[in-house]
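Hello forum,

I keep getting stuck at the same step: I have a sequence, I want structure tokens, and every attempt I make locally crashes halfway through. Rather than fight my setup again tonight, could one of you with a working pipeline run this one for me? It's a single chain of 294 residues.
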Amino acid sequence: MPTVVWAMIVAGLSAWIVGLLLVRPRLYKASGADRVLLLGPVFEAVALAMFAAEHFFAARDLMGIVPHWLPAPLFWTYFVGIALLAAAISFVAWRQVHLSAPLLALLFLLIVITIDLPNLPQHIPLHLRDRLFWTLTVRETAFACGALVLAGSVLPRESRAGIALVRTGRAIIAAICIFYAVQHFLFPQFVPGVPLEKLTPSWVPWPHVLACLIGASLLFCGVGLLIPRAVRIAAASTGAVLVLLTLFFYVPIFVTEMHTPLALEGMNYVGDTLLFAATVLLAGLGTENPASST
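Reply #2:
Ran it on my machine without issues. Output:
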């Protein structure tokens, strides 16, 4: 198994263990759905730590993604890795989140603007069927919006900026959940969660049923995030479903691929789905939510 995969495993497990230990005092003060929502920053940190490790140990492979007009692509690859690691540490330690969360949102938005959107013109005329492009673009946008909601949730409850950040980020995440739900119903043969191009392995029982169930959960979440009274339960329940999907679907897929050339891809699917799960959980936080208080 490649060194980069081991590094991602160690980084993720380390963030997971430390995060669960440090979040316990806040968990004791919360109840119900709020306890689940409080795990959002922890799962976010786990995924960010994994991708930070990938940027450090596979920098020369990843630097090809850096826009050609930026000089020193290797520097920017390491810079992004450092930024992801700094955000992960901040979320785990629950320190300076009011700074790390908006900066993380800005980072993801810059990725969308500089890497995803420049490919848009060649897809608009005749390639609206290219769902992979749109899936990836809105995925990075969702990650940014999750960080925006987190940034707004740690501001004072009466803050207009905080309310605006929470409501804007939450609304966009809701739309993306509905978009993903439709894709699950239309293309149930592909892996669920973030509906990419990977086909569900043949050993998975009832793959179409699984896809439709995840799609229904995402649809419930998307609609629920738009209804104030349903926000917490929608985010907590669907976020929990996506975490379980990561643990009992994507981790087993990775295990079957860990000694093959697909090991890094399998690990990336684990990280991507966990990061999306964390994003959904973060969407349930807010200035009106006691789970968000520091």
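Confidence is low (pLDDT under 50) at residues 123-128, 289-294. If your local run keeps crashing, start a new thread with the error log.
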